[in-house]
């Protein structure tokens, strides 16, 4: 089966066409600046050296998906000859609230449920819905599946997802911890078990999805029991531009001192904070590491604080699970930040974590980076959310 995997952002669209027979990626691409001047599509066919680049106006996601499908069937760069060869579409959907604990075939009822979750993910769900609507118009009759960022975390117990707020705010508005990056946490924890020749149900795993957005999950017996992101993707770790955990009293304090309204404080915490706000240099960890190496004090402190926050969550989740067998690093920083991985694994010997410095000298490659005698195995596993979406799509459509 050939599955088109779509990940629609507010002004972007990432896609892959995957042949589930052998799980081969046939083509891959990215559309940027949808609805903005300078719209561009970059498309790459497996095994072909050069890329197809299309620069033309795209007023909405329907225009973008039409161009994607044109590229997929292009005579020179396409991976199939006809759109009829696309058997199904898998959509990454950010927020399903408590409505879905697993992936589902998209129906009118499912679409309505996603609309009800827009308040919980105002930047992401509308784009996901636009992608679904565009595919319905361009690929009528082709089955579609929704794979949710929040679904993997639906196994958390109440003691992990409820906040210390009046219970009525949960029942009335759904204010609770949801967690995100679930497809990634699911994939790398399952892959870790496979690499170690174990059953995931027999392991206590902490997965560290460390990118510009970052989260950590505790996976015990194959199920998520806790995760660092909360009601929104703002909670938890310090990130590229997001503040992560802070004293909530800071919010009204800054609103008064800086004369900020709700949108203003939201913008400050989501787009002006994190290592970007701390360092004053960049949201890109490579830039901050360069500045730190040249003696920039703020960059050095930003990185130290970031590392401590990761260590704090690993340690707390080991305590919560009453043990730890595996720690996995994934996503942009987790896969490529060799020095940061080394720092995160330091001072953790009391948990049984011992990093092999030579094995850690690698980027973006599936590797065991702990020593042979390390009680806790440390793994680097590139995430593959698209493959997980294709697998779920295949399972549900068949």
Mean pLDDT: 93
**Whole-angstrom Rg:** 21 Å
Helix content: 25-40%
Largest sheet: 8 strands, mixed
- What is the distance, rounded to the nearest whole angstrom, between the alpha carbons of the first and last residues? 9 Å
Give helix and strand order, one letter per element, not per position: EEEEEHEEHHEHHHEEEHHHHHEHHEEH
Main sheet: strand order: 5-4-3-2-1-6-8-7
Strand content: 15-25%
What is the helix tally? 14
Strand element count: 14
Structural class, from secondary structure content?
alpha/beta
User: What shape does the CA trace take?
Assistant: globular
Show unreliable segments: none
Describe the structure.
- The chain has 398 residues and is an alpha/beta fold.
- 36% of the residues lie in helices and 19% in strands.
- The protein contains 14 helices and 14 strands.
- The strands form 2 sheets. Strands 5-4-3-2-1-6-8-7 form an 8-stranded mixed beta sheet, with helices on both faces. Strands 11-10-9-12-14-13 form a 6-stranded mixed beta sheet, with helices on both faces.
- β2 and β3 form a beta hairpin.
- The longest helix has 25 residues, at 297-321.
- The protein is globular, with a radius of gyration of 21 Å.
- 43% of the residues are buried.
């Amino acid at each position: 089966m050939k599955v088109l995997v779509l990940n629609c952002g507010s002004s972007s669209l990432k896609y892959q066409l995957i042949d589930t027979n052998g799980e081969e990626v046939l083509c891959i691409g990215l559309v940027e600046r949808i609805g903005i001047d300078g719209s561009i599509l970059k498309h790459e066919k497996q095994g072909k050296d050069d890329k197809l680049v299309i620069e033309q106006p795209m007023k909405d996601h329907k225009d973008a998906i039409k161009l994607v499908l044109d590229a997929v069937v292009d005579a020179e760069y396409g991976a199939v000859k006809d759109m009829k060869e696309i058997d199904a579409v898998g959509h990454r959907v950010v927020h399903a609230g408590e409505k879905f604990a697993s992936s589902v075939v998209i129906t009118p009822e499912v679409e309505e449920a996603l609309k009800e979750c827009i308040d919980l993910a105002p930047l992401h769900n509308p784009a996901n819905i636009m992608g679904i609507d565009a595919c319905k118009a361009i690929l009528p009759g082709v089955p579609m599946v929704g794979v949710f960022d929040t679904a993997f975390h639906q196994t958390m117990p109440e003691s992990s997802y409820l906040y210390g707020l009046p219970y009525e705010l949960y029942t009335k508005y759904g204010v609770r911890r949801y967690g995100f990056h679930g497809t990634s946490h699911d994939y790398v924890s399952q892959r870790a078990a496979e690499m170690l020749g174990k059953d995931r149900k027999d392991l206590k795993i902490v997965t560290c999805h460390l990118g510009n957005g970052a989260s950590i999950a505790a996976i015990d017996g194959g199920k998520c029991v806790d995760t660092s992101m909360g009601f929104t993707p703002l909670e938890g770790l310090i990130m590229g531009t997001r503040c992560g955990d802070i004293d909530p009293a800071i919010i009204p304090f800054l609103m008064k001192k800086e004369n900020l309204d709700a949108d203003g404080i939201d913008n400050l915490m989501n787009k002006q904070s994190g290592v970007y706000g701390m360092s004053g240099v960049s949201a890109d960890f490579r830039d901050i590491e360069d500045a730190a190496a040249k003696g920039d004090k703020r960059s050095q402190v930003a990185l130290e604080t970031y590392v401590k926050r990761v260590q704090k969550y690993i340690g707390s989740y080991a305590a919560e699970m009453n043990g730890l067998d595996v720690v996995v690093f994934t996503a942009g920083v987790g896969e490529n930040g060799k020095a940061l991985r080394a720092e995160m694994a330091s001072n953790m010997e009391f948990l049984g974590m011992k990093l092999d410095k030579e094995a850690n000298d690698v980027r973006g490659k599936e590797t065991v980076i702990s020593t042979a005698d390390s009680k806790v195995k440390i793994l680097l596993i590139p995430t593959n959310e698209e493959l997980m979406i294709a697998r779920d799509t295949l399972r549900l459509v068949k």
